[in-house]
Design brief:
The chain is mostly helical. It is built from 7 helices and no strands. One of its GO terms (molecular function) is nucleic acid binding.
């Protein structure tokens, strides 16, 4: 038997315990941990920061929405109080109802403007609001003027310079409306209702002449009592109320006119 055959037989009969261990190379645990630990810690930190930012953003958005809602509610309440105060100062029931209705329409148009984003639609809404605001202004002018809607007509029909004060325009329109109102009554209106003379007046003094007419009376009649000026009577000289043309203060300020209030014999 040769040496080569002896070696093969020894290998066949050799037990595993007698065999030489197989050398294998395995990575050390310390080497794997050294590469994985930094990357995992960075990812965890990034996740924590992202989560914290998400929570903060959510809380901030919720707080902003709450503050905005409270601010809108407060502004709406204040606006309603202001409008109610304006409406309460209007004396006429019809004017007040119309004014309040127009204010409600204006509020609805404001809400519609916040919803719509179309510029053309917003322009139309703003034009409607301007008309309603102008109408409410005219209602307040008519309600606060003794001449009522006559003042509004004068205010709208007469144009002034753009730099003219609006209050001045209203007062001027009111004066013209009052003059037209009193002129429309006619000259005979103050004499249509005879009023009994007060005690001690000239109408109760002894009279002389035909028909019992006193020559001291500024208005002559046949047997009737003399009517005294009323607060609603209008002077056709200065267009003020409370006196007649014969006793107008302008007569005393112009002595060269040839007559005085005490010698006047005509009517207004």
């Amino acid at each position: 038997m040769s040496d080569h055959e002896d070696v093969e037989l020894n290998l066949l009969y050799e037990t595993p315990a007698h065999r030489a261990p197989i050398q294998t190379t395995t990575p050390k645990p310390s080497e794997n941990l050294s590469h994985s630990k930094p990357s995992n810690s960075v990812n965890d930190l990034a996740d924590a920061v992202s989560l914290f930012k998400t929570v903060i953003d959510s809380q901030f958005a919720s707080l902003s929405e709450k503050l905005l809602s409270e601010q809108k509610a407060s502004a709406k309440s204040l606006t309603k109080k202001i409008k109610d105060s304006k409406a309460s100062r209007i004396q006429g029931d019809g004017n007040r109802i119309q004014f309040s209705f127009n204010e409600e329409i204006i509020d609805d148009l404001d809400n519609l403007c916040t919803v719509l984003s179309d510029s053309s639609a917003t322009t139309i809404i703003n034009e409607i609001k301007e008309k309603l605001l102008k109408r409410n202004k005219l209602i307040r002018i008519a309600d606060g003027s003794p001449a009522g809607w006559r003042t509004v007509r004068e205010y709208e029909q007469n144009d002034y310079a753009e730099d003219s004060d609006d209050d001045k325009k209203i007062r001027s329109a009111e004066s013209r409306a009052l003059r037209q109102k009193f002129r429309g009554r006619g000259r005979g209106t103050p004499y249509s209702r005879p009023v009994s003379a007060a005690a001690g007046s000239q109408a109760q003094l002894p009279t002389s002449g035909f028909g019992g007419t006193s020559y001291n009376q500024p208005f002559r009649s046949f047997g009737g009592s003399r009517r005294t000026p009323q607060p609603s009577d209008v002077c056709h000289r200065c267009f003020k109320t409370g006196h007649w043309k014969s006793r107008c203060p302008l007569n005393y300020s112009q002595p060269s006119s040839g007559f005085s209030a005490t010698n006047a014999t005509g009517g207004q």
